[in-house]
TrEMBL record, chain A:
Organismal lineage: Bacteria, Pseudomonadati, Pseudomonadota, Alphaproteobacteria, Sphingomonadales
Cross-referenced PANTHER family: NADH-QUINONE OXIDOREDUCTASE SUBUNIT F
Gene Ontology molecular-function annotations: 4 iron, 4 sulfur cluster binding; FMN binding; metal ion binding; NADH dehydrogenase (ubiquinone) activity
Family membership noted in the UniProt record: Belongs to the complex I 51 kDa subunit family.
Provenance organism: Sphingopyxis flava
Name under which the protein is recorded: Formate dehydrogenase beta subunit
TrEMBL record, chain B:
Record PANTHER family: BIFURCATING [FEFE] HYDROGENASE GAMMA SUBUNIT, NADH-QUINONE OXIDOREDUCTASE, E SUBUNIT
Names of the cofactor(s): [2Fe-2S] cluster
Top-level taxon: Bacteria
Official protein name in the record: Formate dehydrogenase gamma subunit
Family per similarity comment: Belongs to the complex I 24 kDa subunit family.
Keywords on record: 2Fe-2S, Iron, Iron-sulfur, Metal-binding
Source organism per UniProt: Sphingopyxis flava
Any GO molecular function: oxidoreductase activity
Keyword hit for Iron-sulfur: yes
SUPFAM superfamilies, sorted: Thioredoxin-like
Amino acid sequence: MTRVFISRDMASVALGADAVARAFADAGCEVVRTGSRGLFNVEPLVEVESAEGRIGYGPVTAGDVTAILGGSHPNRIGDVGALPFFAAQQRFTFARCGIVDPLSLADYAAHGGWTGLDIARLAEPQAVVDTVKASGLRGRGGAGFPTGIKWQTVLDAPGGPKYIVCNADEGDSGTFADRMLMEGDPFCLIEGMAIAAHAVRAGHGYIYIRSEYAFAVETMRKAIELSAARIAPFTLEVRVGAGAYVCGEETALLDSIEGKRGQVRAKPPLPALSGLFGRPTVINNVLSLAAVPFILSAGAEAYADVGFGRSRGTMPVQLAGNVKNGGLFEVGFGITLGELVNDVGGGTASGRPVRAVQVGGPLGAYFPPSMFDLPFDYEAFTQAGGLIGHAGITVFDDSVDMAHMARFAMEFCAAESCGKCTPCRIGSTRGVEIMDRIIAARIPEPAPPTARTGTLEKALYSRSPDRIEVSPGAQTALLRDLCDTMKYGSLCALGGFTPYPVLSALDHFPEDFGAPAPIAQAAE
Amino acid sequence: MDLAAAELVIADWIDAQGDERDQLLPLLHHLQREIGYIDDAAIPFIAAAFNLSRADVHGVLTFYHDFRRKPAGRHIVKLCRAESCQARGGAAIEAAASRRLGVAMGETRRDGQISLEPVYCLGLCAIGPNALVDGRPVARIDAAMLDTIAAEVAV
Ligand SMILES: Cc1cc2nc3c(=O)[nH]c(=O)nc-3n(C[C@H](O)[C@H](O)[C@H](O)COP(=O)(O)O)c2cc1C
Ligand code: SF4
Ligand code: FES
């Protein structure tokens, strides 16, 4: 019987993989449902097992079965791993994703699974923490805090029980690496959490998954059941979010698990000392925890040898939006933004010129192509007025209106604010209003009847709308002032970083805000 | 809402899972799955079950976007409005979907057939614009796909 491999990843299913799988089963094939390899323009992808290895075809439809089994289908790829998109990657975390059956313990063990946990459990907790420190691993959830140092704090914390919490809230637009890993290699995350539990002497863990990820919830729950004996005495459970972006913020997430409104807590106390239910808690992103099995099994140096500056190891970069080769590209830090967008991504899907990319989700900055020599590195991005965040890159072509994107950033902040502090809760709404005025004013209109001239001066702030000075220049000054207040007056990064997309749009694309274009770009 | 049914669902959940406060969100999810939405009239029962104040439960219920306090349409289309889908023409598709399905974003059609709801990212960001149609993911939505969706949710 012919064995074929077809992804069950949510993205593959959205592109029609279920119908393809059914057609192959009907044709008498043994269908193995894997995770996604991570290149979406070849999906639905089918790989047929043969003496020469797996032969890939994609994209395919349910009607293509005969042509594929006969070997004559025009979309024959051959060895999928040899495609330039995959050959150029360094897959440490995603080594198994797209290749194994995600819920097969035998597959997992056959592909190097559990080695890291076995090594860890033979060592003292302190030795495991030291290994993670030596690897240079930094938190992949956004802030880039050294994972080993966080674990050390929890290991040293008095009192118990201690908890391991996995942040799988992945709310940033343009990111899907957490989802792909949970759907494609769930045991890898479980192993990483079990290693963390051994390292800090924790007994129980939670995986907090956003409710939009129904596939990942189901796969993780099954995987936990299947591996319960392997990770015992450590135990795990899944908790499902409820559509609040701010619950990705670690302290809001803890409150949400506790059954409360997902409001951000003031720090200190650090969650490492007083986290879930007031106990010492490791809270890490999916990718941080899933990097740990490799670090333990291959050694800290193997991980730290790759990278750039203080950003060690690999980053699963996600190419999203209007990009030709959208997907997941795991690579060592240091690759430039331009290489990622143009060489790997192949430019826009629409074929029009790239105008802007947003890196790091809704709180990340917009960059113009003139900044594409920026290396992918935490420090370099901070210096350039942006952030890597969860490494999602959203590509926009030249049809984008950057003033609308700035307005959206404010609108999103207003919708998702937890309400704890004023600059974020109220400021974001004021920001939407300012952007509306800028968008209205930048279109040159005939001068309005000047009935009130000579009575009162126009002002930046006023309760009567007709007294507000609405010229783009005045409103832009007000916008900068507001962003300053939000940046320095907010408790967490939702209010504090929303100015990044807004101000970067304004700085790099002033022509969309009714101001003259910058010289360099106008000369192009 | 059938209050008696809701009470039963709540009581069964507490029996199985206990009345610790961290079970509040799982219960709200479960209740919505069983009954379709969470009526304000159920709040006193939930509060009593967890020994919380009604204000506390109301606060949690209204904080999270997922929980519905009114019945939804028979079919639910959740359309992504986030940046990566916008980069792929999401705004135009949102306007077209609203016209094609005969319901404004965030509303339920008057005949109770369809709810059109916003969602901020489904993690399918390279193949947008995306939606969940009664929970089923659909990608690369264009005019033809909207016709298919409209036909599917019309019945
Ligand atoms: C508004 C907001 C949303 C966040 N969303 C996420 C998220 O979805 N996933 C995540 O891992 N971290 C998110 N973070 C970062 C977390 O607060 C925290 O830094 C992270 O979970 C720590 O894990 P790490 O050290 O492994 O990165 C968010 C932060 C903020 C302020
Ligand atoms: S910045 Fe916004 S989301 Fe963060 S704590 Fe303040 S109100 Fe809440
Ligand atoms: S932005 Fe629409 S799926 Fe991510």
